[in-house]
Design a protein that fits this description.
This protein is 29% helix and 27% strand. The chain is α+β, with helices and mostly antiparallel strands. The protein folds into two domains: 36-245 and 318-338, Creatinase/methionine aminopeptidase superfamily (Creatine Amidinohydrolase, Alpha-Beta Complex), CATH 3.90.230.10; 253-315, Winged helix-like DNA-binding domain superfamily/Winged helix DNA-binding domain (Arc Repressor Mutant, subunit A, Orthogonal Bundle). The strands form five sheets. Strands 1-17-16-11-9-10 form a six-stranded antiparallel beta sheet. The chain has a three-stranded antiparallel beta sheet with strand order 4-6-7. The protein has a three-stranded antiparallel beta sheet with strand order 5-14-13. Strand 2 (31-32) and strand 3 (35-36) form a beta hairpin. Helix 1 packs antiparallel against helix 2 (73-86) and helix 3 (148-164) runs antiparallel to helix 4. The protein is globular.
Length: 340
């Protein structure tokens, strides 16, 4: 799968993505070909998205050679998150490491001792942000798995999808490309896992990009000024082609803004809100400041009080293995940039 910065320009301007000043700004509330123009991305925002994408590409390159059988999931998560920070980005969410039938939303907990098993598909999902501008990407690594062709199917579905995206294009058309590509390999797309729109400090911003052609997405379009994560998920022919909720996966977010009454717990909660805003986080990020035992107890109390929410892991319903591939794209007026 190609992971370099890619720019496809739909006019005669031959300039590359690094020359940001050449881009023509969008006009707010103008319709063209059925697409509604969003507020234009500023040059600073575009630059921040590209910086976040560069960090993700480097982390993906490193992690592909790093993940081995018997490694602790905790070590993989911490490596990815450290790599992003070394490149002057912040993680947009905890690094996800999901194995075989677990499709999404697992990150290492505090002192997590789980390891990569033999003959497995390992999905590594990572996000970086610069001042809230998020790049989101994922790869699947085979540990001597018999299902390695599923990785090829996911990657080809992703590449074909990003190749056809144009400003104003209907999301349904891209979903159809993803579905047909996956099925051409004899596999099933996961019907209830989707790509998604990204907004500042918001990983899932409402608009979805299904991996199957859906009547619900017939009218939605890739809007100029929008940022989208394209995210094919693949399972076997024998799989259900859908995921169900499992137990909590150690990925948290603030669910309510009202602070608890206990002074110490209120201080902890306000620190979480200030530090992570609307972005997901994990308890192990708080241990250095608050200590292991207090962090564990505080998170448990805030979960009981529903001030925090823990994302459940998503598991293929028939427990069949899942592969994933993901890129983030910027949709400009006459250009699509794959930043990851």
């Amino acid at each position: 799968m190609e992971t370099g910065l890619k720019s496809r320009t739909f006019n005669s301007d031959p300039s590359g993505v690094e020359n940001l000043n050449c881009r023509r700004p969008l006009k707010s509330s103008v319709r063209s070909g059925g697409a509604t123009y969003l507020q234009p991305l500023s040059e600073e925002e575009i630059s921040n998205y590209i910086k976040a994408g560069r960090a993700i590409r480097e982390a993906k390159r490193r992690v592909q050679s790093f993940v081995k059988e018997g490694m602790r999931i905790l070590d993989i998560c911490e490596l990815v998150e450290k790599l992003l920070e070394e490149q002057r980005c912040r993680p947009a969410f905890p690094c996800g490491v999901c194995i075989n039938a677990v499709a999404a939303h697992y990150t290492a907990g505090i002192d997590d001792q789980k390891v990569i098993p033999p003959e497995s598909l390992v999905k590594v999902d990572m996000g970086a942000h610069v001042e809230g501008c998020i790049a989101d990407s994922a790869i699947t690594i085979s540990i001597n798995s018999e299902h390695v062709d599923m990785i090829t199917a996911a990657e080809e579905a992703l590449e074909k999808a990003v190749e056809v995206i144009e400003p104003g294009m209907k999301i349904y058309e891209v979903s159809s490309v993803i579905e047909k590509t996956i099925k051409s390999y004899g596999f099933k797309p996961i019907s209830n896992l989707t790509g998604h729109k990204l907004e500042p400090y918001t990983v899932h911003a409402g608009v979805t990009i299904p991996n199957v052609a859906s009547l619900e997405s017939r009218m939605a379009r890739f809007e100029p000024g929008g940022v989208y994560a394209i995210e094919p998920f693949v399972t076997t022919r024998e799989g259900a082609g859908e995921v169900i909720n499992g137990a909590g996966g150690n990925i948290l977010r603030v669910a309510r803004v009202k602070a608890p009454k206990d002074p110490k717990l209120r201080e902890f909660f306000n620190d979480v809100r200030t530090t992570f805003k609307t972005l997901p986080f994990t308890a192990r990020w708080l241990v250095d400041k608050w200590g292991k035992e207090f962090t564990k107890a505080a998170v448990e109390e805030l979960l009981r009080g529903r001030l925090l929410y823990e994302y459940p892991v998503l598991i293929e319903r028939l427990r069949k293995p899942v592969a994933q591939a993901e890129h983030t794209v910027l949709i400009l007026e006459k250009e699509v940039i794959v930043i990851t």
